[in-house]
From TrEMBL:
This is Uncharacterized protein. Residues 1-22 form the signal peptide. It comes from Desulfovibrio gilichinskyi. Keywords: Signal.
Length: 110
């Protein structure tokens, strides 16, 4: 009986578990992009990354619902200073695509 209860509890736990929140970032640019994630309330650094063209990374798996700040910069060795892009993320469960435009780096959040 005890084994049946443990098995039933384990099965119920697996079936009711939802997907963990995670931030997925994909670099669609033709150059590397560097960036960081910070908690919005405390400005504490959560993660740093550097993505080569076409690379995708998952960050923040399992973090609670909190607002984050994403800061990105083109890392292509330009002689002039590159513009830093700042984006506020309302949920840690999102897909972000980094694209290159005439105005600079564009962040698309879904």
């Amino acid at each position: 009986m005890k084994n049946l209860l443990i098995t039933a509890f384990a099965l119920i736990s697996i079936l009711t578990a939802g997907p963990a929140a995670a931030i997925t970032i994909r670099n669609s640019c033709t150059f590397p992009v560097a960036g960081s994630l910070r908690y919005k309330d405390t400005k504490v650094m959560f993660a740093q990354f550097r993505l080569i063209p076409g690379q995708k990374v998952h960050l923040g798996t399992g973090i609670s619902d909190t607002k984050l700040i994403l800061r990105t910069i083109a890392d292509n060795g330009l002689d002039t200073a590159a513009k830093i892009t700042t984006t506020t993320l309302d949920s840690p469960d999102c897909y972000i695509e980094l694209k290159h435009t005439k105005e600079g780096l564009e962040v698309s959040v879904e």
